[in-house]
């Protein structure tokens, strides 16, 4: 039940961010739900591998490279989900920052 609530809260956050940011387009709430599901799967399986490989860079940047990893994961979701369009890396970075801030308030 917690997983479903978490996915719905993330989908709402993604939908709000897609509505606010000019460089992020969503086709609707269904697309936001798919983005939340795919992002959860990518964060479960792909992100730990990328984060492990990027430990030296993350250490050198004092942890700021984690934001780059988040943006890259969102760009991967953009390629996998048809209902999401992120214009470029900088919009993905801003999208990731806002999503992190919104998730911080809910969890």
Quickly list its features.
78% helix; 107 residues; mainly alpha; 6 helices; two-stranded antiparallel sheet
Question: Strand sequence of the main sheet, in spatial order?
Answer: 1-2
| Low-confidence sequence ranges | none
Percent in strands? 5-15%
Tally of distinct domains: 1
The best one-word shape is: globular
Based on secondary structure, the structural category is mainly alpha
Count of individual helical segments: 6
> Averaging pLDDT over every residue, what do you get?
95
Helix content: over 70%
**Gyration radius, in Å:** 13 Å
Biggest beta-sheet profile: 2 strands, antiparallel
Distance between the termini: 15 Å
The beta-strand count equals 2
Elements, N to C (H/E): HEHHHHEH
Could you characterize the architecture of this molecule?
- It is a single chain.
- By secondary structure, the chain is mostly helical.
- 78% of the residues lie in helices and 6% in strands.
- The protein has a two-stranded antiparallel sheet.
- The protein is globular and about 40 Å long.
- The two termini are 15 Å apart.
Write a brief caption for the model.
The protein has six helices and two strands.
Q: In terms of topology, how is this protein built?
A:
Blueprint: H1 2-20, E1 24-26, H2 29-45, H3 47-53, H4 55-60, H5 65-80, E2 84-86, H6 89-106
